[in-house]
Predict the 3D structure of the following.
Amino acid sequence: MSKSIHASSELMQFDGKPSWSAAFPQAMQHVLAMLIGNITPPMLIAGTCGLEVEEIIMLTQAAMIIGGITTLLQLYPLFGFGMKLPNVMGVAFAYMPILTIIGQQYGIAAIFGSQLIAGFASIFIGMFIGKIRRFFPPIVSGTVVMSIGLSLYKTSINYIGGGTAASNAGTFGSGKFWFLAILTLAVTLACNFFGKHLIKVSGMLIGIAVGYVAALIMGDIVNFSNFHSAAWFSLPIPFHFGLEFHPDAILMMILMYIVQAVQTIGDVSSTTMGGFGRECTDQELGGAIKGQGLCGMIGACIGGLPTDPYSQNVGLICTTKVVARRVFLLVGVIMLAAGIFPKFSGLMATIPQPVLGGATITVFAAITMSGIQLLNEQPMNYRNRMIIGISLAIGIGIDAAPEILQFVPSLLKNIFGSSLVVSFLIVFLLNILIPEDTTPEQ
């Protein structure tokens, strides 16, 4: 009994020394919680950019590697880069709207070119976070997070239908695709609502597994040819995807890094409060954002998309109170190991699109509701309701009717064609320009 108490105590101390046998199950729980969330964005972006299966495997490999690198850097800071806190970092769904726009407009090379510059700019954001933090209250961050979730629904619906209507004219939205998506969604929700412990935090992974098995039984959906041809061991090829620099793409990516810095503030704050019972310091916040920026630059060179702290893993930390650095060291090492074995990425690339669509819609719904939760931290008086409503109405409205920008210069059209960018700029400016309203919530 005393050994069990001692092991538990060591797990709940940042500098604790739990045995590797006690740390490993905790680490695997975190890996399972973030795994699908980490590999899905590169697969979706690869589809948007029309990449071949071999390159999808390379993007998935890089996602695991950059996730591992970022997790370890946040755990063991270098020269002020990193926060010296436990957290699991991975490729962020929040960047998807901007990455999709850039990928459709210019291709994958432009994504990594803009990411390289924006990552550098993010370092400066981290350096001055203490001074600019007040410009991003919950009304701004909540509106932006909500806009991110809303703008991602179209991606999920397209994947539920099997891709896009244009690329799959004969099969888009077929019954078998709907069946796979609904089955995956139902299992994911069942695990989330009725499961406990590991089953609850691994709901999306279990849902995808069930949907995948159903697709295998159907017989004509899953293709293993590229999995068989994938190598057992491989390292990323630097600059394989190239780098292209377009001013509008760079500006959109910088804005997204600013937005993500706001979300990082929330995740890091939750980690310190839930895991350590204290507020985070400006030094920890700055280190976290600078670490993300540096790893974004590294990712641009090896094919890894931008990262952020994973909220589901933050939730695990708050629930279990496990914060031992040794646990998260194992998480980073496991992610790196998975990234250098293309067979793993090749297997992930065989997951059918409807299965991914059915699973990811739960993530996008959670992002939207997180935005609403942030907004509820401020009183919903007339001022705040109108700022939020106008920001979302114009942003989402332009996204629904992009033709309204047909007479706008192409540079501005590309920037303001994103509902996320428009909503962010409007809520940011209105919150500064309109005087504070101290009247109670209506």
Q: What stands out?
A: The mean pLDDT is 82.
